[in-house]
Amino acid sequence: MPLPALTSLKDIWFFNIRGDLLAGLVVALALIPEAIAFSIIAGVDPKVGLYASFCIAVVTAIAGGRPGMISAATAATAVLMVTLVKDHGLEYLLAATVLAGLLQILAGLLRLGQLMRFVSRSVITGFVNALAILIFLAQIPELVGVPMLTYPMVALGLAIIYLFPLLTRAVPSPLICIIALSAIAIAFGLDVRTVGDMGELPATLPMFLIPDIPLTLETLQIIFPYALAVAVVGLLESLMTATIVDELTDTPSDRNRECVGQGVANTITGFFGGMAGCAMIGQSIINIKSGGRGRLSTLSAGIFLLAMILLIGDWVSRIPMAALVAIMIMVSIGTFSWSSLKNLRVHPRSSSIVMLATVAGVIFSHNLAIGVLIGVLLSGVFFAGKISQIFRVSSELSAGGRTRRYRVEGQVFFASVEAFNAAFDLKEALDEVIIDVSQAHIWDISSVAALDMIVLKFRREGAKVEIIGLNEASETIVDKLAIHDKPGAIDKLMSH
């Protein structure tokens, strides 16, 4: 009988060896031009992005909370570093990367990963659709102003990707696409753009180094805003991607561990000459579609990337970009939630608005955090509006006409306070008022203040007021915040 630890190790790392290794190879090949492109975006040498992709992939494979998810250098974090690199140079970028990693570790220790519970399905769908569109748009430069042979090569690549699985799924079709198109381009000497045209591949291993910057408060003031932005955007994209991979694989992830894992990866990356990164939805989907499921796929992607650029860099540089464009178009098509278009007619209008607003926010700002923030804020507003409508106040007058019983039903909070106040006739001549809240819940300081006002104004008019039916949670907040049962309550009300 195998030892429990060994069984656990097998379950985590070696349950899908062949699938993970092949998927890792495909991901590594697709990562190289992307890492170079992201380096160009940030304004640094290509090796900065390549070293980052290697380090982040290897570390998150071990420390991350989502098996099968690919993390590396990304455009989302690269664009945030442009001004820092331009104004202060590479060393400050490396320092900001280390600090961003430390902030992400802190976020994980504070268990901020649980905040993903407050991101609605509509926001996630909008995020996915926006990324799919951005992935496709990112391929446009490789389809404009290029040799005419590029277009049939891309078409052939897509045909291989979608048709080869009909023959066999033993080998990932994206890998076959890369091999076949590379063989055709080399054999016939085709004049098409290659990976080598994107930038020079490094020829040495990444080396440990400490960023050469002055350790002063002024330096911290320079790098902290960039580090904070990178930390937030990186965690947001990582956690959103983890949610998507969870759904694709029907397996759970540890969000807080993912925060820590991403932080550790970025911290280490900064000391090895790499820039900050995060999870990549496109590469993660390539990994899943190619058969990757475990941590081994992420680890092998990082190791294969470094091995290929160091050992067979000359061959890697001859891979036609058309092959990688075809793969990314496949990713874009596979990522987009096509059912969301059909659901626009059947889903509630508010949900559709949230989804479309998230898409628009991401696409127009090119900032995932802004798009998601717009979606979350709109979700909150619409939710508050819906809940506020699940509220009503009814009343009945006693036989003698001197006692009125108000029955409050639903949720009493800031959005329903106006309706709550309007439901009471404060000028009615009464001896006694009974406010029955047994079917209601009092949520916040606004609702407590409204209850105070109603009670005190009735008392000012000479009526005796009794509140009945408070549930335990409502009673707790009322006891803590209410003033109607405190000495001098009417004077306090009048002072406001």
Tell me what you see in this structure.
64% of the residues lie in helices and 8% in strands. It is α/β, with parallel strands linked by helices. It has two domains: 332 residues, no CATH class; 106 residues, 2-Layer Sandwich (Transcription Regulator spoIIAA). Helix 2 runs antiparallel to helix 3 and helix 2 runs parallel beside helix 4. The termini are far apart.
Keywords:
496 residues; alpha/beta; Transcription Regulator spoIIAA; 4-stranded mixed sheet; two-stranded antiparallel sheet; 21 helices; SLC26A/SulP_dom; Membrane-Transporter-like; STAS_dom_sf
List strands and helices in order, with pairings.
Elements (H helix, E strand, L loop, with lengths): L3 H10 L3 H26 L3 H18 L7 E3 L1 H14 L1 H20 L11 H17 L12 H18 L5 H15 L29 H33 L5 H17 L5 E3 L1 H9 L5 H17 L1 H4 L4 H15 L3 H5 L5 H17 L2 H22 L1 E7 L5 E10 L4 H6 L9 E11 L2 H16 L3 E5 L3 H10 L7 H7 L1
Parallel strand pairs: 4-5, 5-6
Antiparallel strand pairs: 1-2, 3-4
Helix pairs in contact: 2-3, 2-4, 2-11, 2-12, 3-10, 3-12, 4-5, 4-9, 5-9, 5-10, 6-14, 6-16, 6-17, 7-8, 7-14, 8-14, 9-10, 9-11, 11-14, 16-17
Brief characterization of the structure:
By secondary structure, the chain is α/β, with parallel strands linked by helices. The chain has helices at residues 4-13, 17-42, 46-63, 75-88, 90-109, 121-137, 150-167, 173-187, 217-249, 255-271, 281-289, 295-311, 313-316, 321-335, 339-343, 349-365, 368-389, 417-422, 445-460, 472-481, 489-495; strands at 71-73, 277-279, 391-397, 403-412, 432-442, 464-468.
Give the rounded overall mean pLDDT: 87
Structural class: alpha/beta
How many strand segments? 6
- Give the helix tally: 21
Principal-axis shape: elongated
The proportion of residues in beta strands is 5-15%
Helix and strand element order: HHHEHHHHHHHEHHHHHHHEEHEHEHH
Question: What is the number of domains?
Answer: 2
Q: Write down the oligomeric state.
A: single chain
> What percent of the residues sit in helical stretches (DSSP H or I)?
55-70%
What does the largest sheet look like?
A: 4 strands, mixed
Distance between the termini: 75 Å
Spatial strand sequence of the major β-sheet: 3-4-5-6
Low-confidence segments, ≥5 residues, pLDDT <50? Answer: 1-6
How big is the Rg? 29 Å
Protein name: Sulfate transporter
Keywords: Membrane, Transmembrane, Transmembrane helix
Transmembrane segments: 21-42, 48-64, 92-110, 122-140, 146-164, 171-190, 223-245, 296-313, 319-341, 353-384
Domain STAS: 406-496
